[in-house]
Amino acid sequence: MTLALVLGSACWAIVPARGEDAPSRSLHLDVLLDGQAIGLIGTFRQNQRGDILAARKELEELGVKVPGSVKVEDEVSLGAIPGLSFAYDEATQRIDIKLPSGGRLPKTYDAQPASAPGPAPERSSTGAVLNYTLFGASQDKQFRDFWRYPTLSATVDARLFSPVGVFSQTGILSDQSLAGGAAEALRLETTWTYSDPGSLVTYRAGDLISSGLAWTRPVRLGGLQAQRNFGLRPDLITLPLPSVTGSAAVPSTVDVLVNGTKTISQDVGSGPFRITNIPILTGNGNASVVVRDASGRQSETSLPFVVSSNLLRPGLFDFSAELGMPRLQYGLRSSIYDEGIAGSASGRYGVTDTMTVVAHAEGAQGLGMSSVGGVFGLGQYGVLTAAGAGSWRDGQLGGQSYLSFETQAWGISLKAASQRTFAAYRDLASVTGAPFTGLSNGFGDYVASATSSALSGSNWERMLLPPRALDRISIGLPVPALGGAVSLGFAHMKPVLGRSNRIINASYTRPLWGGGSFYATFYTDLADRNSAGVFAGLSFPFGTNITSSAGANRVGSRWSVAADVVKPVDQDIGSVGWRIRDVEGQGDQKRRSASIAYRGSAGLLEAGVTQGATGFSGTLQLDGAVAMAGGSVFAANRIDDAFAVAKVGAPDVDVLFENRVIGRTNASGNALIPTLRSYQPNKISIDPRGLPVDAVSETTVEIRAPSDRAGVVVDFGVRSTSNSAIVILQDAAGRPIQVGATGALQPGLKGTSAAAPEFTVGYDGRAFIENLAADNEIVVQLGTGICRAHFAFTPRAKAQVSIGPVRCN
Predict the structure, then answer these.
(1) Looking at the structure, do residues 35 and 51 belong to the same domain, yes or no?
(2) Domain tally for the chain?
(3) Last residue of a domain, one of 666, 697, 720
(4) Does residue 47 fall inside a structural domain?
(5) Based on CB atoms within 10 Å of each CB, which residue in 88, 128, 298, 682 is the most buried?
(6) What is the DSSP letter of 380?
(7) pLDDT-derived band at 114, boundaries 50, 70, 90
(8) Spatial distance between the Cα atoms of 425 and 396, rounded to a whole number of angstroms
(9) Is there a single domain that holds both residue 749 and residue 697?
(10) Same domain, 708 and 746
(11) pLDDT bracket for residue 604 (50, 70, 90)
C-alpha cells in the first residue's frame, strides 16, 4: 500500500472480502491525527461488520504506532489498537484518529537530504601518464666552481590506465659520474589497481602496504589486496551524525545550536519528530535544541553529542585483506622479498551510532597474531578506544593492550593513548625485517654503534619488536588572558632494546595585528637534558601572497637566528615564486640562500643557490608530466589524480574547468584538463565565442566523473557548418515568417541529400538551415497551412552566409 499527497476528495470502491461471505469496501480516506490534518491519504478496508482495518505498514507511514505482534503486511483493526479511537465521516471521506500519549511514531526529517545524483563513474579511456622530477645539485668551496661537478637524479611515476585498471611504476634514477660516483637505478613500487564503484572495493596486485589500526604496524608486501574504499562514493557519509527527538503540540520550528552557532533550522509538524544527520563535523559536547511555535512560545533542551571519524554508521563494514611476500629494505634495494608467505586482515563494523567493533589479524610461517577492540562514543564525554591482542611465535605467547581517549570541553581538547606489550609478543613487522647487510657506514653501522652490539641474531630481532610502552598525551587550550592558545604534549617510549625517551613539549601561538602571528615552542627529553630546545618567531604578510618571518632557535648550547621572505608559486600558469633566507648562528649553522620558481604550461621549474659554512651549492629542479590520451600527447604539470582531454576540433578555443579558464586548445583542437577529481562530478565546458563562425557544437558543457588516476576524453561534437546559411524568410505579403514556425529542407533537387533536415524560424524570419546544396527547396509549417520557397546557395570559407529575404508562398 502507498500514501499520496492529494488535493480534493477520496472515493471508495467495492472489492471482494478476504475470507468473508459479504463484500468489503476499500476506502481511501483523508487522515487527521488528533484533529490535525497531515496532508496524506490512507488506504483502509471496511469489512461486513463495519470494522475499519489497515495494514501495519500503512498505519506506520501515517504515524500510528502498531503493536509489535502484528506483521508488516498484516491487517489490523483500528479498534484493536490499545487506546486508539477514531471518527469516520463517510460524507467527506475523512477519518480522524485519536491517539494516546506515546501512540504516535515520530516523523523523521533528514537535515542532510540526499543530493541529486551526479553522473555515474565512467570507465576510463586508454592512455598513459609519466610524472617526473628532474633534480640536479652541485657544490664547491668557491662560487665560480660550484656548478662544475653536479649529481643528477630523476624520480619517475609512470602509469598506464585502461577500463581494466591502472598499472603504475615508480622509481629513482641517479647519476653521480661527473662527481666521481656511479649511475644507479632503484625500483620503488610496481602495482596494478582496479576499483569497483558498485561494491566500493579496490583490488591491488604487486607492491602494496598492508592494512592497519591505531595499535598495529603495517608492512610492505608483494602480493594481492582487496580493500573497502569509501572514497569511491564521495557523497557517502560514513560517520554517525547526531539526531534530535522531541514533540511539538502544533507546527513549529526547531533550531539546533552548537557552541552558540545555529547549525540547522527545521520546520516540523505537530506530534513527535526526529531530525537526523545534524551537520556537526567532529567533537563532542552539548547542543541546544530550541522548539518555537508560530505564537513565539519556545522550549529549550540540551542534547549531548559525539562525532568522530573513528566511528562508523550502523551497518557499514570497512575491511582490508592482503596476502603476499614481505618486502625488505624498501628504498634501498629494488627487489628483495622474504621467501615466506604472510598475510593480514583488518575490519571495522558499525554496530550502533556509539559503538564500532574492530578486529585485526596477521600471520606468517611460525607466527599468528590477532586483536579485537571497539570504539565507543561516550556522548558529551568523548570517544574511548580499547583493544587487546595476542600472539603466538614458535610456541611463545605474548600480548598487547591499547587504550585511547579523546574529548573536548570548554574549548579544551584532550587526546591520550597508552600501549603496552607483554611477554613474547610478536607481530608481522617484527619477524619480516632483515639486517641491512652490506651497507658500509650506513644505517646498520649507526644502529650497531648506538646499541653497542652487533646487528645479528636476537639483537636485531629485539630491535624490530614493538616498544614495551608507548604513551602519548596532548592538550590544547585557549588562554584569553594572553590572547592566544597553548598546546602541551608528552610522549613516553620504552623500546625493548635501548634507553627510554620521555619527551615533553609546549607551544604558544597568538594572532597579531595586520594578519601577523607569534609562535614559541619548547621541548626536551627528560632522559637527556642536553636535548632541550626552544624556538620562537614572528610572521607577517605583505600584500596578498608575500610573507616575511623572523625567528630564533636554541638547541642545547647552540643558537641561531633566521629571517626569510617568501612568495609561493601559485597553481596558475605563468605564476612566479621566490624565497630569500638568511640564517646566522654558531659554526655550520650559518647559511644564506635564494631561490626562484616559475610554473609554465609544461611544468614547474625551480632554481636555487646556497652559501654555507663549507662553500656554495646550487640546485635545479623541474617537476612535470607527459600525458597521452585520445590520440594526443601533452606536456603538463604533475597529474596526481584524474584528468581529461577536451576534443574541440578547433584551435585557440578557451576550455573551462568549474567555470574557470584552465587552458586553450592546441593546433589539433585539443586541450588537457589536469586537475579533475576522481569519482566526483567535474564540470568541463568550452567558450563557444572562440569557435569559427562556420562551426557548431553539439554541447558546450559536460559533467564527468572519472575513475582514480585515469583519463577521460570529452568530445564536444564540434562540426563544420560550411554548407549552412541564415535564410531570412517572408510570407507572400512580405512580412517576416512568424517566430517558432518549423520547416524542412526538401530532398530531390540536384546536389541535395536524401534527408530532410528540420529547422525553426527565429526573430525577423531568420532560420539557420544546414546541409544546403546549390539549389534548395524548403517547406514551412504555418498556422494556416504550409508555404514553399526556393533559393540558391554559394558557400564562403570561414564566413556565415546570409540569404534573403526569400518569399515563401
Answers:
(1) yes
(2) 5
(3) 720
(4) yes
(5) 682
(6) G
(7) low
(8) 8
(9) no
(10) no
(11) very high
Q: Is 420 exposed, middle or buried (0-12, 13-18, 19+ CB in 10 A)?
A: middle
With a CB cutoff of 8 Å and minimum separation 6, the contacts of 288 are: 256, 257, 258, 300, 301, 302, 303
Hey, what's the cell of 141? 668551496
Bridge partners of 494?
469
Q: Is 376 exposed, middle or buried (0-12, 13-18, 19+ CB in 10 A)?
A: buried
Residue 96 has a CB neighbour count (10 Å cut-off) of: 18
Is 498 in the same domain as 476?
yes
Q: Do 635 and 699 share a domain, yes or no?
A: yes
**Average pLDDT for 38-65:** 88
Alpha helices in 13-147 (DSSP H): 56-62
Which CATH number does the domain housing residue 278 bear?
Answer: 2.60.40.3110
| Parallel, antiparallel or unpaired: strands 528-542 and 546-555 | antiparallel
Per-residue pLDDT, 443: 39
- The dihedrals phi and psi of 795, each to the nearest 5 degrees, come to -70, 150
Q: Give the integer Cα–Cα distance in Å for 72 and 34.
A: 24
Last residue of a domain, one of 720, 748, 781: 720
- The helix/strand count (H/E) of the chain reads as 4, 55
Whole-number pLDDT of residue 262 = 83
Phi, psi dihedrals of residue 354, rounded to the nearest 5°: -120, 10
Could you tell me the residue range of the domain that residue 481 belongs to? 467-548
The two most distant CA atoms of the chain are separated, in Å, by 112
CB-neighbour burial class of residue 482 (10 A; exposed 0-12, middle 13-18, buried 19+): exposed
Q: CA 658, 659, 661, 662: dihedral to nearest 10 degrees?
A: 10
- Whichever domain contains 671, its CATH number is 2.60.40.2610
CA distance 744 to 735: 20
Closest C-alpha to 682, from 626, 625, 641, 633: 641
Question: Do 477 and 544 belong together in one domain?
Answer: yes
In this prediction, residue 149 carries a pLDDT of 67
Asked if residue 549 lies in contact with residue 582, where contact means CB atoms within 8 angstroms, the answer is no
Does the predicted model carry a pTM greater than 0.70? Answer: yes
Q: With DSSP H G I counted as helix, E B as strand and the rest as coil, what are the percentages for the chain, rounded to 5? A: 5, 55, 35
Which whole-number Å values give the CA distances from 746 to 130, 269, 741, in the listed order? 53, 62, 16
Question: What CA–CA distance (Å, rounded) separates 154 from 136?
Answer: 9
504-547 per-position pLDDT tens digit: 999 999 999 888 999 999 999 988 878 889 999 999 998 878 99
Distances 260 to 263, 277, 282, 546, 652 between C-alpha atoms, Å: 9, 19, 16, 35, 53
Give dist(CA 346, CA 225) in Å, integer: 12
* Residue among 417, 357, 428 at smallest CA distance from 391: 428
> What is d(CA 102, CA 84) in angstroms, rounded to the nearest whole number?
11
759 and 688 inside one domain:
no
Is 213 part of a structural domain of the chain?
A: no
| Residue 18 counted as domain residue | yes
Helix or strand (DSSP H, E) at 54: strand 52-55
3-state SS assignment for residue 724: coil
pLDDT at residue 15 in the model: 33
C-alpha cell at 381: 564525554
Cα 148 from Cα 617, distance rounded (Å): 11
pLDDT given at position 444? 40
Inside any domain, residue 224 = no
pLDDT band at 273 (very low <50, low <70, confident <90, very high): confident
778, 769 contact by CB (below 8 A): yes
Local structure of 513: helix, strand or coil: helix
Cα–Cα distance between 502 and 367 in angstroms, integer? 32
Residues 747 and 762 in one domain: yes
129 burial via Cβ count (<10 Å: 0-12, 13-18, 19+): buried
Q: Shortest CA distance to 751 belongs to which of 792, 803, 799, 796? A: 792
CATH of the domain at 70: 3.10.20.410
Backbone angles phi, psi at 309, to 5 degrees: -70, -15
Q: How far apart are CA 441 and CA 447, in angstroms?
A: 10
